[in-house]
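Re: the request from the purification team.
They wanted to know what the chain is likely to look like in 3D before they choose a buffer screen. I agreed to run a prediction and write the result into the notebook, where they can find it.
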Amino acid sequence: MLRASLNEIKEGHMKKQKKGYENWQKIPELSKSGYLLLREKRFKEAENEFQKILDIDKKNIYAIVGMGDIKRKQRLFEDAVDIYEQALTVAPLNKFALIGLADTYRGLKRINDAIGVWEEYLSYSDNEYDIAILSRLGDTYRKTGQQKKALEKYNKAYSIDAKNPYVLSGLGLLYFEMNNFNKSLDHWKQLLEIEPDDVKVLTNIGNCHRKLRDFNGALKYFYKALKLEDKNFYALYGIADSYRGLKDYDKANEYWRKILENDPDNKKILTRLGDSYRNLRNLKNARFYYKKAIEREFDYYAILGLSIVDKMEKNYDAAVENLSQLENLSGLNIQITLQLSECYVEMNKIEMAKEVLGKALQKGINNEEIKNRLKILKHQK
């Protein structure tokens, strides 16, 4: 009787072991299924699969990270932070938990925390060559104005893989923001060899040429981009602005108007049209577009342009009123100072012109043209 009882206990124990072994064998398939469902954004079903794993092995790192990924994808960032931190207590060096936590901090706009985790991740052996994280850190440093650190990360990534599209794009954007348009152009052209039909790359190359005042070179790339996307804002803007640089204002107007067909309330484009018509001395149309821009909302350049039109039409009182309004709203600057002084000179109010120029210099607006004008006016009565 006792022997029978011992055999039963032994048999029961073996069955439990077998069942436990069978359950452990299910984990890889459950994990694969969970991550597949996660990629398909079937979050509830994915959560069920990961929970089945955790019921078998409560410290399974892949299931815990998977749970964190679900919360992050659903933008439940605070919940995700808790889960990733739990994962890191189980496996402090786990790549996916660290990256998930950093991305979650980024979602919470806790940028410094995100940077800290990414830097920690890179400090661990072999992770320092992770181009994706180097590039992500470069992007983050660039977007937060830390250009030196951004360049360090991008250059390290570039030394590992000089053909990585994200690294080339990051360097192109960074050098452009640093006003180093030749270096920016070099990286965008490297990327163009990899992605010859990428509209973003083509327009960025066009922008570099435009900043270098190579307007014909810019047009070549903007037209290529426009051929691929006939309503692309950046291609249309680049073409219009390049013609503006070439002083072909009629051609510029053609493309400013194309933008307005898609975006009729764009105050910047309305102002650009006003500028073009003013340069063509079509003051009626210039005034029309400046006023349309101002009707949308306050626009510094539209009001400035309108004041110049008033001055050109010898409507000096209106010009002075607009310029004074701008001064009250945005403070005295070089443009306002020069336009106001010109108005007063043309109104034969020399003392008022000198007063405006002198006031600008007193406020620390150190400009040679202002100094020269004041010097000339001091000899006039």
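For the purification team: Residues 222 and 235 are 5 Å apart (CA to CA).
Please add any questions underneath this entry.
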